[in-house]
Amino acid sequence: MLVVASLSLKGGVGKTTVALGLAGAAQAHGVRTLVVDLDPQANATVALDAGPTTATVADVLDDPTTAVVHRAIAPSGWGEGVDVLVGAEQTERHNRPDPGAAQLGRLARALDRLRNGADGPEEPYRLVIVDCPPSLGQLTRSALSAAQRAVLVTDPTMFAVSGVQRAFDAVQSERERGNPDLQPLGVVVNRVRPRNSEHEFRISELRELFGPLVFSNVLPDRSAIQQAQGACLPIQRWDTPGAREISAVFTTLLGRVLRTSRSRRDRHDDTAASNESDLGGDRADDDAAADHQALREAAR
């Protein structure tokens, strides 16, 4: 079970859009996925059209037992293959600025309950996507304590560089505090307008500073995203040219996620390949081939 945090320390850049797009790509490729809505705004829960539950992620963070975790998980309205650990406004009470180690470890313990409580050899979820709030309090740090990968989300504005740098620093700090498995998967640039000189400049600036961590495929600014979310449908099922363009980017991102998961399992066989995948970012033709191979394996 690979845990991936969708992270931004600048509000309004589309971290929930990335979490939902990745979940939709996973569903389309047969990868059973749990979306954990840690944002007190609970936008991911709404967009996923989650069914009713008798608990929420706030209750899980109060008491991360197996019973509470299962009561807080609902099937999504998207259909089979995507469930939701539902969000709520009450989650804000867990967003302390200076939490202790026990508080930070509650989400990880809750997800361990899912691993350890699985029936049979298969884990209940292959992928867990955590939608973080846009702040570096207890909630985001809890996600980073539980995750193996972090997707850093930004937009091409003048504040993008500082926001990505702070998010990257947060990942590095959590690695040093006690989660050495955590790695930045890459930087996803969202809401990019073609032939916009300011956007082109900011993307170049990001690539100059963060190099291969910045994904070569950017997410274009398309109304299809808002339309699909308003209809509580994955972008993969919104049949417009703009939606298909965006879906292709999320398919590539999913391939990168699955490849890093495979690399973790096979590290003893191919250390060099694993090190490259841990860095994330753009690895040209051989990386693209590896990503596509990971998607083909997932579809079997």
Automatic annotation (TrEMBL):
Name the UniProt record assigns to this protein: ParA family protein
Organism of origin: Pseudonocardia charpentierae
Top-level lineage group: Bacteria
Sequence ranges assigned to domain AAA in this UniProt record: 3-183
Signal sequence residues: none
Location of the region described as Disordered in the Swiss-Prot/TrEMBL record: 261-300
Biased composition (Basic and acidic residues): 289-300
